[in-house]
Amino acid sequence: MNADQWNQRYPIGTPVLAYPGVRPDHPLAIAVRQRQTDGMHVDLGDADLCRALTTVTRTPAWNLGHGDPVVSVEGYAGGISLTHVVPICGSQCPEHDHRCLRSPGHQKHICRDEKQKGTESCTWDSVAKAVTR
User: Contact at 8 Å (CB) between 21 and 48?
Assistant: First the structure.
């Protein structure tokens, strides 16, 4: 997707998952998660490179001099490649401090997270504001 296409679909303030370093499917991210799971030491620089931000866009997308489209998000200085930014629903869970990570426009207002509060995840109706288990 280029910057113009992004800007037509997603206004400033769109909730997103942003990966400033590497995406979670990158071999480095996979290796870091495996080392953490195995209880092994992970260099802080590597762990930071693999972080994900649940945030919102703060600028329209634009093209860098070499042509790659980027967008700025809250909580990060500079632009992040559009290949590392995923729009999400962003609806707030009515009982916990997390947001819906499903894509925008999902069906029936049924929101859910990805195990944000330990071993369980929440599902809620964004209109009725009710959590189901």
Answer: yes
